[in-house]
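TL;DR need structure tokens for one chain.
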Amino acid sequence: MNLVWLVDDDEAIGDALRSMLRLLNYDLRFFTDARSCARALITDPTPDLILIDLNMPEVSGIELLDYIRSKLRWNNLPVVIISAETAPAAVESAREHGADGYLFKPISVGEMQAGIDQAIQKRGK
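>> reply
TL;DR here they are.
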């Protein structure tokens, strides 16, 4: 696995997560909104995994996740939700919508790697 897409509307958090993912030797593409990620999914080669912020303006992380899961061609694409939202209901909702993992911000390097590994294993990649 090489290519990870990160979707987060907060560029400062995005910078920190990008640094972490590069440290873990992942190629990375960063999106600041769900719509641009959805457009790229249609036109560009599919990534190996997508990390999606839960709470974003206009199109939420759950809405992007629903879009991904609605398309058969992305059925095996691992998706991990990242959020500062720690309520059990938010975690359960993400899983019900098809998330393969849920990471709480702030995320440590070890947690990031474990979350990615778990999501990939779940989708059988």
